[in-house]
Amino acid sequence: MFLSRFPRLSPQILHLSRIRASLPVNHLRMSSDNSVPAEAAIAKLTETEQKNPKTVSEEQWKNVLSPEAFHITRKAGTEPKFSGKYDKFFKSGKYNCICCGAELFVSDDKYNSGCGWPAFSKSVEGDKNIIRIPDNSYGYERTEVRCKQCNAHLGHVFDDGPKETGERYCINSVAISFAEKKSE
Ligand SMILES: [Zn+2]
User: Fold this and answer.
1) Global pTM?
2) What is the pLDDT of residues 62-72, one digit of tens each?
3) Ligand 1 midpoint to CA 88 (Å)
4) 170 included as an active-site residue
5) How far apart are alpha carbons 88 and 83 in whole angstroms?
6) Cα of 177 from ligand 1 centre, angstroms
């Protein structure tokens, strides 16, 4: 018979190959290289995409972000006032972009502004990973802040901050992920 010319794969080999195929693409790489934080959505995409966050398509972001995070970071949405998990949160650590993992803020610069969203008096290394864009929507003159690496909408920056910098970065909790400072 025609089919008998093909050796049959044993059920054990089939089982092993299925396990291998089901491992996450970045499983091995991510365990030895922590350049992209595991909480960042981009960690679920390929290495090429991780190196070039700006090339990730809207469809790809949709697949790896929660619907809320997608709406806020990729569609410039705003989370409801006082709803964010980092609004009244003051642990010691740093805040990374939820999309690409870029380091954006540290807890030392976070303060309670009472405005209903997480507030920071400055960003990491003077906007090292942040871009500012004039935003005239809703009849206001505001300055939008986005992640420089992946273009995620983060929030706005206002000039009513504490004396030291005079600025208040008003950021959506959903756009950032917190990484606790490890005690040495
Ligand atoms: Zn980013």
Assistant:
1) 0.80
2) 999 999 999 99
3) 23
4) yes
5) 10
6) 11
How far apart are the CA of 103 and the centre of ligand 1, in A? 8
Give how far Cα 84 sits from Cα of 81, 110, 115, Å: 7, 14, 12
How far away, in angstroms, is 129 Cα from ligand 1 center? 8
| Phi, psi angle pair for 36, to nearest 5° | -110, 120
How far is it, in rounded angstroms, from Cα 153 to Cα 126? 18
- Rounded Cα distance between 74 and 178, Å, is 19
Residue 20 CB: number of other CB atoms within 10 A? 7
Q: Please choose, from the candidates 64, 88, 100, the residue with its C-alpha nearest in 3D space to the C-alpha of residue 175.
A: 100
Catalytic residue (choose from 97, 99, 150, 170): 170
Using left for φ > 0, alpha for ψ between -120 and 50, and beta otherwise, residue 127 falls in: left
The pLDDT tens digits for 101-113 are 999 999 999 999 9
Paired strand residues for 147: 130
Q: What is the pLDDT of residues 17-72, one digit of tens each?
A: 444 444 444 443 443 345 799 999 999 999 999 999 999 999 999 999 999 999 99
